[in-house]
Automatic annotation (TrEMBL):
It comes from the Bacteria. Keywords: Aminotransferase, Pyridoxal phosphate, Transferase. PANTHER family: FI04487P. This is Methionine aminotransferase. Its cofactor is pyridoxal 5'-phosphate. Belongs to the class-I pyridoxal-phosphate-dependent aminotransferase family. GO terms for molecular function: kynurenine-oxoglutarate transaminase activity; pyridoxal phosphate binding. Pfam families: Aminotran_1_2. One of its GO terms (cellular component) is cytoplasm. It comes from Arachidicoccus rhizosphaerae. Residues 25-370 form the Aminotransferase class I/classII large domain.
Length: 379
């Protein structure tokens, strides 16, 4: 057979994590924590399994969890989403993104996404015959360029993918930008898909602005979330989608045939665990301390941090130190300094090489300090 994806490389996360193992490097590349998750949530899953939650969950997810998410969304964004018809539990955010794309994109239709971007957006669009169109963010603050966005909208545009807080740059969108987005799409049938997996990781007393909180955007927004990021259990691959009833009806037509449902006991345990909002509301402060710790540890190194408003990633510039392209530098750093990063170039299409690498700071303090010591030795 002829490969349908001859140009698709191995994911950069797989590649860099393998290099980390090979060179026994400290892995600040792939986005996952190296500290344990809350044992209380693990006990909750065991308990739910013992209670018999081991067969298929309802296709859209257990109602107790959907109700919790509806209450949470109302509290945080001031808008009610019906747990019966507007909230769907999925096996993680990546599959949720794919499901939404497969639901709405017909062959030849265009999907605009901001560049750089999480690496699954582009291939998910091409897999269903859509055309991904990159809209580079402004440099160096990684803000949205509304004029650039407008210039890319065509009669073929069917969806815009937004990600806030943003992986890999840590930038966030403002309420004004959401309203400007509405102005751009209000007379079209463009759907806004907002990837909000880092909604609870936001720093320096800022607020997360979601399109879910904008009544004007209600009937055209699909938001995607991940419990993996909320509760430090990325391996559990559980997430959810919130969207207006008409959109959710369509999304569930695809969801029921690709996933059907997801891990029963995890859903019950998370619903119980979420009774205490502190379990996720404390995340921002916890990770802000880690961001600061890594910045301090690298103060006397040749790597210079760029500002970050949210997510657990930060870009560092090596421009004053090396002229290598980003990928070559990341490979070199892994081998020579024993610290693994993600080259920004692996997450961009048309953004250019700005000598930037991404570190994940969701790591034990001792891991960050050890990485800092190794990187300071670069001189
Ligand atoms: N979106 C973004 C922006 C991410 O960084 C990630 C990281 N894994 C995901 C989606 C995927 O989340 P999940 O692990 O729940 O599939
Ligand atoms: N979201 C994580 C990151 O950006 C990892 C995703 C993955 O391994 N596919 O690093």
């Amino acid at each position: 057979f002829q490969s349908k994806f001859p140009d698709t490389p191995t994911s950069i996360f797989t590649e860099m994590s393998q290099l980390a193992i090979q060179h026994k490097a400290i892995n600040l590349g792939q986005g996952f924590a190296d500290y344990p998750m809350d044992p209380l949530l693990i006990k909750g899953v065991t308990k739910a399994m013992e209670e018999g939650y081991n067969q298929y969950a309802p296709s859209s997810g257990y109602m107790i969890l959907r109700e919790r998410l509806s209450e949470k969304t109302l509290k945080e964004h001031g808008q009610f989403f019906d747990p019966e018809t507007e909230i769907t539990i999925t096996p993680g955010a990546t599959i949720a993104l794919f499901t939404v794309i497969a639901t709405f994109i017909r062959p030849g239709e265009e999907v605009l996404y901001f560049d750089p971007a999480y690496d699954s957006y582009r291939p998910s669009v091409t897999a269903v015959g859509g055309i991904p169109v990159s809209v580079p963010l402004n440099f160096p603050d990684f803000s949205l360029d509304m004029q650039r966005l407008q210039s890319k909208i065509s009669s073929k545009t069917r969806m815009i993918i937004l990600n806030t807080p943003h992986n890999p740059t840590g930038s966030t969108v403002t309420r004004e930008q959401l309203l400007a987005l509405y102005e751009l799409i209000k007379d079209t049938d463009i759907i806004l898909m907002c990837d909000e997996v880092y909604e609870h990781v936001i720093f320096d007393h800022q607020q997360h602005h979601s399109p879910l909180g904008q009544p004007l955007l209600r009937d055209r927004t699909v938001s995607v979330h991940s419990f993996g990021k909320m509760f430090n259990c990325t391996g559990w691959k559980t997430g959810y989608i919130i969207a207006d009833k008409a959109l959710t009806t369509e999304i569930r037509k695809v969801h029921q045939n690709n996933a059907f449902s997801t891990f029963s006991a995890v859903q019950i345990a998370i619903a119980n665990y979420m009774e205490d909002p502190d379990t996720y509301e404390r995340l921002s402060g916890f990770l802000q301390n880690k961001r600061n710790l890594l910045e301090d540890a690298l103060k006397d190194s040749p790597l210079k941090p760029l500002p970050v408003k949210g997510s657990y990633f930060q870009l560092y510039s090596y421009a004053g130190f090396s002229h290598l392209p980003e990928k070559d530098f990341a490979v070199w750093l892994n081998k020579e300094a024993g610290v693994t990063s993600i080259p920004l170039s692996a997450l961009t299409e048309n953004f250019g090489d700005h000598q930037l690498i991404r570190f994940c700071f969701a790591k034990k303090d001792e891991t960050l300090l050890k990485a800092g010591a190794r990187l300071r030795e670069l001189g």
